[in-house]
Amino acid sequence: QVQLVESGGGLVQAGDSLRLSCAASGRTLRSYIVCWFRQAPGKEREFVAAVDWRVGITRYADSLNGRFTISRDNARNTVYLQMNGLKPEDTADYHCAAGPRGTFATNTYYLASSYDYWGQGTQVTVSS
Question: Which of 7, 57, 98, 108 could bridge to 52 as Cys pair (CB 3.0-4.6 Å)?
Fold first, then answer.
């Protein structure tokens, strides 16, 4: 079992930056792909970014246009999401999740069903 706890959300203004954290316990994340999804009120859950922990390869949603960066800290067993140039449309509940490796090769990493463990989420609100 993997337990995931997100933190770092908050209320910011458009153009600001935030860094979200996803701390894992129970198992090391070295054998997983770890990702961030977000869900805005009334909208579908949306893939944001993912990292293959073992090799460090990353994937991002095209819509982000390079504003977000996912990274990992082996010593802390923690994944981060650095969000720059935040926009009101980035307002959402952000969740991290972990799932088995291999979904980059099968191009299924962007599907919520590819992940077995989920955190409770952290709210990000961007005002205009």
Answer: 57
Rounded to a whole number of angstroms, the distance between the first and last alpha carbons of the chain is 40
Instruction: Encode burial over 87-104: b for 16+ CB neighbours within 10 A, e otherwise.
Output: eeebbbbbbbbbbeeebb
Is the CB of residue 70 less than 8 Å from the CB of residue 83? no
Residue 26's pLDDT band (cuts 50, 70, 90): very high
Q: What share of the chain is helix, strand, coil (3-state, %, to 5)?
A: 10, 50, 40
Contact 88, 14 (CB under 8 A): yes
User: H-helix or E-strand containing 70?
Assistant: strand 68-73
Q: Is 33 helix (H, G, I), strand (E, B) or coil?
A: strand
Q: Assign 122 a pLDDT band (cuts: 50, 70, 90).
A: very high
Residue pair 9/83 in contact (Cβ under 8 Å)? The answer is no
